[in-house]
Specification:
- Helix 3 crosses helix 5 (96-111) and helix 5 (96-111) packs antiparallel against helix 9 (207-239).
- The chain has one domain (68-239).
- By secondary structure, the chain is mainly alpha-helical.
- It has helices spanning 7-15, 17-26, 38-59, 68-87, 96-111, 125-147, 149-154, 164-203, 207-239.
- The protein is built from 9 helices and no strands.
Amino acid sequence: MSEHEFWLTKLFNDYLAGVGNAVLTAVGRPAVPRPWETYITMQIFVVVLMMILFALLRSRLSMDKPGGMQHLMEEIYLFLKGQAEEIVGHHGHRYLYLFATLFFFILISNLIGVIPAFESPTMFPQVTLGCALLTFLYYNMQGIREQGAVTYLKHFMGPVWWLAPLMIPIEIVGHLARPMSLTVRLYANMFAGEQVTLAFLGLTYAVIPVVFMGLHVFVSLLQAYIFTLLTMVYVGAAVEHEH
């Protein structure tokens, strides 16, 4: 066991090692004494936290006396819906479930690192890569579903047929670069913000760390929005019909 094993990961490895090894063997990986990694346990924690948060919110929804949390969630919903319809089109609300899920998952994952007892899952490249691959697979699947495989793949050929030998490699490289760009942008910003905050916390516990923690919160919100916005852009381009 690592001397600095994260407390939540230690609990999983102490009491749920059998479950972790069952998953590993199911995907063809060998069993290990301590199968759980911090980026996995923190993702599970964030998902459970989201489920509890929205279950509590749903039980308290009220038309007559909406609470502060309901107002906040309604504003976020209307904002995301407006952005989706502006970027994707009038049918953008059909993809809102993915946009909202990504936004809240990334936002909570970013913000949870501000709490001293927790670590941000988005500090780990495996997590940001997973979100990026989800976006990549989703927008391509929606493009094929909306336009048909042949029509969607024809977009890779460019505006005129004789440009196809040049455009197809460019389009393929461009699309493959998107997951890498999404991965590195989110991971690098969150990792750097976390390290800066920890560095100043190690120097002093007065005003300066508070300033950087506030900056970390702002960056967390901004990065969740940027990731979601780029997902909307990719989906909008994939499902757009040429006229």
